[in-house]
Amino acid sequence: MSTPAPRPYAAVDVDGVLADVRHRLAHLAGRRKDWDAFFAAAPDDPPLPEGLAVAARLAADHEVVYLTGRPERCRRDTLAWLQRHGLPEGRLVMRREGDRRPARLTKVALLRRLATERPVAVLVDDDAQVCTAARAAGFSVLRADWMPTDPASDNTLTEAQERHGRT
User: Fold this and answer.
1) Element (DSSP H or E) covering residue 68
2) Residue range 29-34: mean pLDDT, rounded
3) Residue in 163, 129, 166 with CA at minimum distance from that of residue 15
4) How many C-beta atoms lie closer than 10 Å to residue 24's C-beta?
5) What is the pTM (predicted TM-score) of this model?
6) 9-163 adopts what CATH topology?
7) Do strands 63-71 and 9-12 pair parallel, antiparallel, or not at all (unpaired)?
8) Cα–Cα distance for residue pair 59/90, rounded to 1 Å
9) CA 118: distance to chain centroid?
10) Residue 76: which residues within 8 A CB-CB, separation 6 or more?
């Protein structure tokens, strides 16, 4: 009797896909960014129902990996948030402390590392630049566009992800 092949990975981002971060973007507006306050407020993020539904659907035939640009110091809060909101069990892959590369570089590198273990069937992410880079690297992508945004908050989050390499 042969062992069944492992299920492929479905890599799912957290901020802007599962978690509504809009209430904490004010900490990043303006010249002085309060990163500690931004991440300290993450446990209060409301869930995004569309993202939760996508994660649940993917878990039926994939191994879910939560692939986030949040720094490693947020692990405990992030795991508690995922559990509190009933998300499928899955490995949490986070940005190393001190890694300030743009999200598009960090996440593609993490996807490539995951792909050495087993196929990565899909990445679900809200960041257009991450999605473009992942597609260019040969990964299938589902762009999460369900978190309502306004131009100011969208620019704040994009700047945090791309210019500051923080989420």
Assistant:
1) strand 63-71
2) 86
3) 166
4) 19
5) 0.88
6) Rossmann fold (3.40.50)
7) parallel
8) 9
9) 19
10) none
